[in-house]
Specification:
heterodimer, A: alpha/beta, 9-stranded mixed β-sheet, about 15% strand, B: mainly alpha, two-stranded antiparallel sheet, two-stranded antiparallel ribbon, globular
Chain lengths: ~475, ~775
């Protein structure tokens, strides 16, 4: 059982409705069902429905967010027409009223520009992949390439927030928080939702803790940021001069003192607190063990590349993500900054690709070799696409691309997603979707479905309204389900 | 059998006071017991029926005209008894006859093709709920207006004649306790009561001297003297400000991804000042909403309007100006609804509200008041330093020496603070289709939701000042209740209306409706006097009860809705920090000033940044390390982690109620945050040569004398640890060197290290950061 839940069950229903959020996916809670009109909460119904709602295909998610929005046109959405028409103006019929960001809205011309980088076909599906991503190309038969994600946001902050929470407005729970809420943790010594950050050499955009927020859910569902510093989780390390034995002894004394408090007051929160201290103590052991990558065997190091031995790199984080996931962490969220190529795309994109391509592919291979890919869903992608026309100066050797909401590419692998396919089509200009659009809400609905959750039933009532990760939309994309 | 349109508390009072009370109480109690709920004798529309209809039916049969199915609505009196569109001989509800009530037939049906709510909605009614509706129809299907939209009425105070009663509050509480056959607790012991009232009124623990003085004071009004002294204490304003800063979404940065620096702390200093000076709530609200529009506004009144400038402002290159200008006006409108009226206005921006009587048109009518402001959505990127091009006031030296003497500014630099000012040109407000900034539809007049309280333009001016006067008008059913309820929530951890941010149909019903009204009416009658309200509550016997929970009470009323004992509440993020600093003697007692950057784990800002703006966390030193929690610098995109772990608001939007969790990360902070451990070191240094060092440390932190057993455990622990450190001086050296606070030279290093551990243990006791 989810240990957070276990602790809470020892409590009682004092803060029952508030505490429901502690992983409601447990049949045991059913016995606590209250015929409740007074708070007429939706939570009881979620409980009655039972979680997961049906047998899950995937148990865990590793989400490799490419922050800043990598260009689909230099990666997975091959548009030779743009090379042919390079320098010509984007036809108004194609732009068709699309609003522009303030960065290009006063640009006089919108010259089309094709990929500087070569494309070739790979795998059974014959998917086109650019030369920047040779390693991902080598695992193409495990990938589901979705070319038709689209969004309404045209700026990073709202777009990221949308991708993470299903809505552009802030303060809603992040996807990982929803999964922690719905399914709890599979490891009693680690948080259900872990976050890892890295930064490439390209032009970057911010990532910040509000992206892994619990929103209105209980704060136990907040993403826990792991860092590459000496302290992998904030406040994890004992103060200098306190030994492990010293800490144990203190906890024993503390427990003795707190039990006296419980005898006096009879407040079950006191017992809960004692257990939270024990959990914290266990984390102090389990986290450093898991974040220590130095004992990884050579073939793994080779697979992820030498960068994986340098703490804080994308490669090291991806390897750590695999370890966390393997240990039962429900949702590992990686953010890699540096994909915002408004200019100098030709210079920056190869560096970004070099930092990420090998480890991303290694993760898929590694999980597969461990027999874990079937139950682990891996996602790779940014928050929107990039324009087919040049931002700033266009030369033979270099160009830039602005934000483009109407189409972008996301990769999925494992976890009940159909491998070796390309889904959705964009027009020859790489500007509009011509077949099988996938809205962010659809994408979330599909992910929840793979985790055994009905996106319309995973709700939390807050200030009078039942909220969902998929807001008021979301249709599962059946064609990509394995 | 339609009821009168307007139901007042008198009517409700009758119900509560007679049969209804029993019914309501029985109802409330059965709510919380796992056993099947029992059926009340009289089914009340407000308390039994509307919550069901609102939660399961209003989405398709409620205020939102576009979503309404079958032209059927259950949120209005007419709708409840209306003839069916397709079959005018049939009616939705027929008083006295469930069998003829089509709505009842549908909800009670076994046939899923006609069942309501339809299975596809994922909503359903329990058998108990169906039975309630059946009984309600049989008893005449009487409709009543939503309780919160009827102005509070003076209520009669029950008379129990009990010794336990101190003031009117207790009579109301006792009456309900009697009904459910629960007894209140005795008064808490003096030490715990003192800690409780100190934390509640000034947010700091009593010193040893203050504890001793109170214990020694045998006079009858010893407690009252303490209360009066605390209300006059300069730290009272700080304690009160914390909650208002959440409501006002105060922060030190602009938010959104670049998240640059802003200077709104002089406004925060004003809030502290306003509470300390005990500005009546009406003045406090009027100045913040419309100080600039009052006759001859002075600089203080202008500064107060900063309230409406605390929202996020984007500095992201490439955003569309109008999109964000609309965002800001939206934020102000939503904040207005939640902060003053406890209404979820935000739900009516894109469509009519699904539960409450706020149409989309009315949303934009209220929006119109805030749409006259001079500003831009986007003025220049973070490097330009002029976000949104808003009006500001310059605070000069003579202001600080004069009318703004509460602004804690030591240097001579100029301060520019954002304020409100309407532009000279009237800006017509359009209803925005789907809430989208680029889809303007019809122009709407200024106004407010009609079915809550219409905006009478013959009485109120068509600007924010008119709106402020509308909020504070005696016929406004919400304002006084909402504030009284939030004040109650601050002191008891749970409002009389638990959903303190939602008094609408989906909000919870008041647990003590008559008490809420009595307090609200009394509050307004006495000039919106906040200190008086607080004194009234903390003087009550209800507040002064002990917090011991018997097994029986826990089983019968686990949420302590009936207040048969005082609550035990973990301190807020800020107050946990304050307790540590105050008890160790490190606290810098200064009021106000620029926000500070205390210890924070390395790299948090640096790794999470766009590379622009505040990219590096430059930790402060000296006195600034020991300021109270409310002065900690809040960078919106990366809020201070030690506060966030303890459920502090990230100040993204208006927040009226914080969660209260109990997590392992909190344990890690209390055990390992250098701020806490440094405090242990500083306190250990000051006590190490004291004979009663453990006793004193315990009293400073826990605020009561330790029991013999507690002293015994801690003394043994001290001796054992001292021995360990004696044989390992290197560890002792490390431990005693923690923190920047001035070190005292102590010869007995092992003893000092052991004492640090003992104090760390006391800081980590459950009781330390709990108000009990």
């Amino acid at each position: 059982m989810n240990p957070f839940l276990e602790n809470k069950l020892n409590v009682n229903r004092r803060h029952f409705l508030g505490k429901l959020s502690l992983g409601i996916g447990s049949a045991a809670l059913g016995s606590l069902l209250i015929p409740d009109l007074f708070s007429s909460s939706g939570d009881d119904q979620a409980l009655a429905a039972g979680l997961p709602h049906f047998a899950p295909k995937a148990k865990r998610i590793i989400y490799l967010h490419q922050n800043g929005a990598p260009s689909q046109l230099e990666s997975f959405d091959y548009k030779p027409l743009l090379n042919k028409m390079a320098g010509q103006e984007l036809p108004e019929s194609i732009r068709n009223g699309q609003r522009l960001t303030g960065m290009t809205s006063d640009q006089k011309k919108f010259p089309l520009v094709g990929s500087y980088f070569k494309f070739a076909q790979y795998g059974k599906s014959g998917a086109w992949i650019s030369e920047l991503f040779p390693h991902l190309a080598s695992v193409v038969d495990d990938l589901c390439i979705i070319k038709t994600l689209h969004t309404e946001a045209i700026n990073h902050d709202p777009a990221l927030t949308f991708m993470q929470t299903g809505a552009q407005q802030g303060n809603r729970p992040s996807m990982g928080a929803w999964l922690s809420y719905g399914l709890g943790s599979d490891n009693k010594n680690l948080p259900a939702f872990c976050v890892l950050l890295s930064r490439g050499k390209g032009n970057g955009q911010g990532v910040y803790s509000k992206l892994w927020t619990n929103g209105f859910l209980d704060s136990i569902h907040q993403g826990v940021q792991f860092s590459s510093s000496e302290e992998p989780v904030l406040y994890l390390n004992d103060p200098s001069g306190i030994t492990k034995e010293g800490r144990r002894k203190m906890l024993d004394k503390l427990s003795e003192l707190n039990s006296m408090g419980y005898e006096e007051f009879g407040d079950p929160e006191i017992q809960t607190k004692v257990q939270q201290y024990e959990m914290a103590y266990r984390m102090q052991t389990s986290v450093p063990e898991i974040t220590d990558l130095s004992k990884e065997p050579d073939h793994i190091i080779k697979m992820y590349g030498p960068d994986c031995l340098m703490p804080g790199t994308y490669a090291a984080n991806v390897l750590l993500a695999r370890k966390l996931s393997e240990s039962g962490v429900r949702f590992v969220q990686i953010y890699h900054q540096g994909w915002d190529q408004h200019g100098n795309l030709v210079g920056e994109m190869p560096m970004q690709a070099r930092d990420t391509d090998r480890a991303s592919a290694a993760l898929i291979t590694d999980l597969k070799q461990r027999g874990l890919l079937d139950e682990t869903l891996v996602v790779w992608g940014g928050e929107f696409g990039r324009t087919n026309y040049c931002q700033g100066d266009l030369s033979k050797e270099n160009y830039g691309r602005d934000h483009h909401p109407r189409c972008y590419t996301v990769l999925m692998a494992g976890g009940g997603i159909k491998p070796g396919i390309v889904y959705g089509e964009t027009d020859d200009f790489g500007y509009n979707i011509v077949k099988d659009p996938v809205h962010i809400n659809d994408f979330h609905a599909t992910i929840l479905n793979r985790m055994g959750l009905d996106h319309e039933k995973l709700t939390f009532k807050h200030l009078g309204r039942r909220y969902r990760l998929t807001d008021v939309g979301g249709k599962i994309v059946p064609a990509i389900l394995a | 059998m339609a009821a009168q349109g307007k139901v007042n508390w008198l009517t409700l009072s009758v119900i509560f006071a007679s049969v209804g009370t029993v019914a309501l109480i029985a109802f409330l109690l059965t709510q919380k017991s796992p056993a099947a709920a029992s059926m009340p004798k009289t089914v009340d529309y407000n308390f039994h029926i509307r919550p069901i209809l609102s939660d399961r039916c209003f989405k398709c049969h409620g205020p939102d005209a576009r979503q309404r199915k079958a032209n059927l609505r259950l949120d209005t009196e007419e709708g409840l008894y209306a003839a069916l569109k397709d079959n005018p001989s049939e009616h939705v509800f027929v008083a006295g006859d469930p069998g003829k009530s089509e709505a009842f037939r549908r909800i009670a049906s076994q046939d899923t093709s006609v069942l309501m709510p339809p299975p596809s909605s994922n909503l359903k009614l329990s058998q108990h709920e169906i039975d309630l509706i059946e009984k309600w129809i049989a008893q005449g299907a009487v409709y009543k207006k939503h309780w919160a939209f009827v102005p509070p009425q003076e209520t009669t105070v029950p008379k129990s004649g009990s010794d336990w009663v101190v003031n009117e509050i207790d009579e109301f509480v006792l009456a309900q306790l009697d009904n459910v056959d629960l007894e209140p607790n005795e008064e808490a012991d003096r030490e715990r009561l003192l800690k409780r009232v100190y934390l509640d009124l000034i947010g700091l623990p009593p010193t040893l001297e203050q504890q001793d003085a109170f214990l020694a004071d045998q006079s009858d009004n010893a407690y009252e003297k303490v209360v009066d002294a605390l209300l006059a204490n300069k730290h009272y304003g700080e304690k009160m400000a914390i909650q208002w800063l959440d409501v006002a979404r105060y922060a030190d940065t602009h938010g959104y991804q670049d998240d640059g620096l802003r200077t709104m702390w002089p406004w925060r200093d004003w809030v502290i000042h306003a509470f300390n000076e005990n500005y009546p709530y009406d003045k406090f609200v009027r100045w913040q909403l419309a100080g600039d529009l009052m006759p001859d506004p002075n600089k203080e009144m202008l500064l107060a309007t900063g309230f409406n400038r605390n929202h996020k402002i984007t500095q992201e290159g490439g955003v569309i100006d109008e999109e964000y200008r609309i965002e800001y006006v939206t934020d102000r409108t939503n904040t207005f609804g939640k902060a003053f009226l406890a209404l979820t206005f935000e739900c009516a921006k894109c469509h009519d509200h699904k539960y409450d009587p706020i149409s989309q048109k009315e949303y934009f009518s209220t929006f119109a008041f805030f749409n006259q402001v001079a500003e831009k959505g986007y003025q220049g990127d973070i490097y330009s330093g002029t976000a949104a091009d808003v009006p500001r006031i310059s605070i000069k030296k003579e202001d600080i020496e004069g009318i703004l003497d509460f602004v804690n500014k030591k240097d001579s630099g100029l301060l520019n603070v954002m304020i409100m000012r309407d532009s000279n040109v009237f800006r017509p407000t359009h209803l925005l289709s789907r809430g989208a900034y680029d889809a303007p539809a019809e122009v709407v007049p200024m106004g407010t939701p009609d079915r809550i309280l219409g905006f009478d333009t013959t009485q109120f001016s068509k600007n924010r000042l008119g709106l402020a006067n509308w909020v504070l008008d005696e016929t406004n059913p919400l304002t006084s209740r909402v504030f009284v309820n939030r004040t109650w929530e601050q002191l008891f951890g749970r409002g009389i209306v638990k959903t303190s941010g939602d008094f609408g149909m989906q909000g919870e019903l008041p647990s003590h409706p008559e008490l809420l009204d009595w307090l609200a009416v009394d509050f307004v009658k006495n000039g919106w006097d906040i200190k008086r309200l607080i004194k009234q509550i903390v003087m009550s016997g209800t507040y002064r009860q002990s917090s011991v929970v018997s097994k029986e009470k826990l089983a019968r009323d686990p949420e302590n809705i009936y207040l048969s004992h005082a609550p035990r509440i973990r301190l807020t993020a800020e107050l946990s920090r304050d307790l540590v600093l105050a008890s160790s003697g490190e606290l810098t007692e200064e009021i106000g000033g620029p926000s500070v950057k205390p210890y924070q784990p390395k790299g948090i800002w640096e790794v999470a940044t766009s590379g622009r703006g505040l990219t590096r966390y430059n930790q402060d030193h000296d006195d600034k390390l020991y300021r109270r929690g409310l002065y900690t610098f809040i960078k919106r995109t990366v809020p201070p982690p030690s506060l966030l772990v303890f459920d502090a608001s990230n100040r993204d939007q208006c927040e009226v109620r914080r969660l209260r969790t109990n997590t392992p990360l909190q344990a890690l902070v209390m055990m390992n945050d250098p701020q806490v451990n440094e405090a242990a070191r500083v306190l250990a240094e000051s006590l190490i040569n004291d004979e009663d060092k453990i006793e004193k440390a315990f009293r400073l932190i826990i605020c009561r004398k330790a029991s013999n057993k507690e002293i015994d455990i801690l003394s043994k622990y001290f001796e054992e640890e001292k021995k360990t450190f004696t044989s390992n001086v290197a560890d002792a050296d490390k431990l005693i060197s923690i923190g920047e606070f001035k070190h005292q030279k102590i010869e007995d290093k092992a003893g000092l290290a052991a004492m640090i551990e003992v104090i760390m243990t006391i800081y980590n006791m459950e009781e330390a950061i709990v108000k009990s």
